[in-house]
UniProtKB/TrEMBL annotation:
Protein name (database record): Uncharacterized protein
Family: Belongs to the glycosyl hydrolase 2 family.
Taxonomic lineage from the root: Eukaryota, Metazoa, Ecdysozoa, Arthropoda, Hexapoda
One annotated GO molecular function: beta-glucuronidase activity
GO biological process: carbohydrate metabolic process; glucuronoside catabolic process
Superkingdom of this protein's organism: Eukaryota
Length: 273
């Protein structure tokens, strides 16, 4: 079975298309010995609906809500310099407590009782490992999270941030922050300790605007985080795109960058324009 894919549409077998319940994925992969001094992670971009992952027969992670990514550190479960095995159990059953909700019925057929998935939404309940699976490494001490919020003060943009490292016992972890514009010109820098709230100002800011509210919508800055210890510089680096905007509301309107936005409802599918 190919990955990524929805197994329902890979073959012409109707029983596989309409299958309700669990399926298994299994494959082998090699981990080099050079990774032994790092933290190794496995990341699934989407598995619908529920997934349980084993590495070399040891349970690594369980996840549900199939359209969201998830990951797990698997360093202690690997054989370095050798072949390894990943096994994934995927369950597509939707019930009253899942997102989205559904129900499973037993329906009599000419071949006995069959399970049938029912639901009220208007799309097919495709299942499987829908998106890519990645194996990657980080340093033992690494950036665990980057928490960002933004605001505007007239022509100045404000990026509020907190850099979270996995080693919270080390008080000497320093994060150097570098902000670049869309043309990769460095426009602001700052240095702060990890796990502390900080902010950085962007002069002559270009705010992020939704489509149709500005001639140049969706402007994004690049935020780069360089993590260093007292002895090792740039032990980990993380980059992300940041749009600078303000959000506010009153009794009658929701405002983006001080301008009211008219909500037209929502689209159930990812259609353009």
């Amino acid at each position: 079975m190919p990955v990524p894919a929805s197994y329902n549409d890979i073959t012409t077998n109707s029983s596989l298309r309409d299958h309700v319940g669990t399926v298994w994925y299994d494959r082998r992969f090699f981990v080099p010995q050079s990774w032994a001094d790092k933290s190794v992670w496995i990341r699934f971009s989407s598995v619908h609906y529920e997934a349980i992952v084993w590495i070399n027969g040891n349970r690594a992670v369980r996840h549900e809500i199939g359209h969201l990514p998830f990951e797990a550190e698997i360093t202690g479960l690997l054989n370095f310099g050798q072949e390894n095995r990943v096994t994934v159990l995927v369950d597509n059953v939707l019930i009253q407590t899942t997102i989205p909700q559904g129900n499973v019925l037993e329906v009599p057929t000419d071949f006995g009782m069959n399970l049938v998935q029912t639901y009220t939404f208007d799309f097919f309940n495709y299942a499987g490992i829908h998106r890519s699976v990645h194996l990657y490494t980080t340093s033992k001490i690494h950036i665990e999270d980057v928490i960002v919020s933004t605001d505007l003060d007239q022509d100045t943009g404000i990026i509020n941030y907190k850099i979270v490292a996995n080693d919270t016992d080390d008080d000497n972890l320093i994060a150097f922050i570098q902000i670049s514009d869309a043309d990769d010109n460095v426009i602001a820098t700052n240095t702060t300790r990890c796990n502390e709230q900080a902010s950085i100002e962007i002069p002559d800011v270009k705010p992020w605007w939704p489509y149709l509210m500005h001639p140049q919508p969706g402007y994004l800055y690049k935020m780069e985080v360089f993590l260093s210890t007292s002895t090792v510089k740039n032990i980990d680096i993380y980059r992300l795109k940041v749009g600078i905007r303000s959000l506010s509301w009153n009794a009658t309107s929701f405002l983006i960058n001080g301008k009211p936005i008219y909500f037209r409802g929502f689209g159930r599918h990812e259609d353009s324009d």
